[in-house]
Amino acid sequence: MKKPVAVDLRKRLIALMTLSDFPKLHCPFIRQTFAVEKEDWKKHGSRLGLRVPEVYLVVEKINPDYQWVMDDSETIAVEKLNGTNVKIMTEKGRLVAIQNRKNVIDPLQILHGKTFLIEGIFQAIGRGYVKEDGEQAGEVIGPKVNSNPYQLPVHEWYPFEKAVKDLRYKSFNEHDRTFDNWSSWFKEGLVSRYFTKRASKLGLEAKVMAEGVVFYNLKRRTEGKIWMAKLRRDMFDWYYNDAIKIIGYDKNGRDETENQEKFD
């Protein structure tokens, strides 16, 4: 029995709208798996985003191929927004494709599904963030995403290109790039630049910590080398210590090296 023409047409359209997935970013430090106390996990695991009683923490060992994060003066640190990754494609001012990671989103579906993504994109259009032509990647943030840490009333799509320009930590190169320095910075001083800019406009005194940073090196990009990496606050042991006991963690790590591809 032949499939309805409409079904075949929809599949072909989805194939045409499929964009490349955003490349997976790795951490400049080696990460290792550590078990946690199960009773602690049962009480606090959900709040801390732990699906199983274990954590995936950084240790004081450089991830092979990421020494440039520590050494290259052209490496910059940009706030990693706590949202969901969305790519869009425009042609002559028309929105022709939307993709949330590997999930193709129908730009014309405005009543069902993840309509907050559409809202975020149209908010960005109103702010002038969307280009006339081309593929752009960014992060949708707002009320329905990761508990809305930025206290937004509506959703917003924020392009990564704009983040590199406006959410860069300009003091990054003024400090030694060491494990301990970054651990202290992430714990006490990594304040969200996005929220700080918003709070200043609204007269708010609240402070929100950033999720982490993305390291960029645009020179390496032109050379065809690895040019991005990420580091989040939840990759450090202190992120969990107030609520969950981590079994056997030592910042020097174990001799074994786990497959880094398995970590998010």
Give an overview of the whole structure:
By secondary structure, the protein is α+β, with helices and mostly antiparallel strands. The protein has a domain at 82-166. Helix content is 28%, strand content 23%. It is built from nine helices and ten strands. It has helices spanning 5-17, 38-44, 67-71, 115-126, 160-166, 179-189, 193-202, 218-222, 238-241; strands at 29-35, 54-62, 76-80, 84-91, 94-100, 103-105, 134-141, 156-159, 212-216, 228-232. Strands 6-5-4-7-8 form a five-stranded antiparallel β-sheet. The longest helix has 13 residues, at 5-17. It is globular, with a radius of gyration of 20 Å. The N and C termini lie far apart (43 Å). The mean pLDDT is 92.
Index terms:
single chain, 264 residues, alpha+beta, 5-stranded antiparallel β-sheet, 3-stranded antiparallel β-sheet
